[in-house]
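Audit log entry. Action: structure prediction of a protein-small molecule complex. Ligand: magnesium ion. The ligand was supplied as SMILES and no pocket hint was given, so placement is left entirely to the predictor. Protonation state taken as written. Sequence taken verbatim from the request; no trimming, no tag removal. Recorded inputs:
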Amino acid sequence: MAESHEAGEPFVSVYHIDKRFHTEVERTDRVLEIAEAFGLGLDDKEFVVFDNQPIEIEQGDVVYVTGESGSGKSTVLRELVGKMEADGLKVADIDKVELLDKPLIDQIGADTGEALNLLSIAGLNDAYLFIRKPKELSDGQRYRFRLAKIIESAAKVWVADEFLAVLDRTTAKVIAFNLQKVARRVGATVLVATTHTDMVADLAPNLYIEKRYREKIHIVRSQEGYKTLETTQ
Ligand SMILES: Nc1ncnc2c1ncn2[C@@H]1O[C@H](COP(=O)(O)OP(=O)(O)O)[C@@H](O)[C@H]1O
Ligand SMILES: [Mg+2]
């Protein structure tokens, strides 16, 4: 459970993330050959990805996680989601959105107008796509549709791993900008992770987490202001 501040204060939680794997190597002939050639020890080891790392998140924060493949981005999202759900927060995770075998326009929004608005926020602006079914979309188009479904949800926390990773970068930036705008308007916390580092200006994250190899991590909290700046427009 997170340590929470008192009622009336902005809702801040500190989550302690601890993730370590016990690694055993299977001693096959080739493994032994490699171990000898490269001088590797084959004793059981502990691989630490997060060493009881505190991460402070305020309700409504936009949290941007970057880092190389294998650094621990998905792990931190998964751990945070588990702890937030244990605290009773409703979480909408892009990987858990269920899509129906119906045209997009029929499975989002209370009416056609709201459907069009949600689709356009998520970067789906082509009328041809509105009448297609999820299975007829490209991976990137389907990802954007899932994002629209998350925006529609009444969840307090929106989570998107591999955030806009397969999109061309111009489109990705536009959607990142739209997403943070809507999230800040409704006060949703946003957790996104991707190896792409090019969305800082558009996401204007409150918390930027650069995960490095093993337990190494660099966390920057932005100055006050991103939120006030965004919500006054
Ligand atoms: N069952 C496991 N045993 C050992 N190491 C694991 C296991 N599962 C994941 N890892 C390691 O944890 C690290 C972080 O994984 P992950 O969070 O998926 O990285 P990312 O999302 O940044 O690519 C990786 O280096 C991976 O090898
Ligand atoms: Mg990952």
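Audit: result stored. Residues 227-233 have pLDDT under 50 and may be disordered. The domain at 60-90+154-231 is CATH 3.40.50.300 (Rossmann fold).
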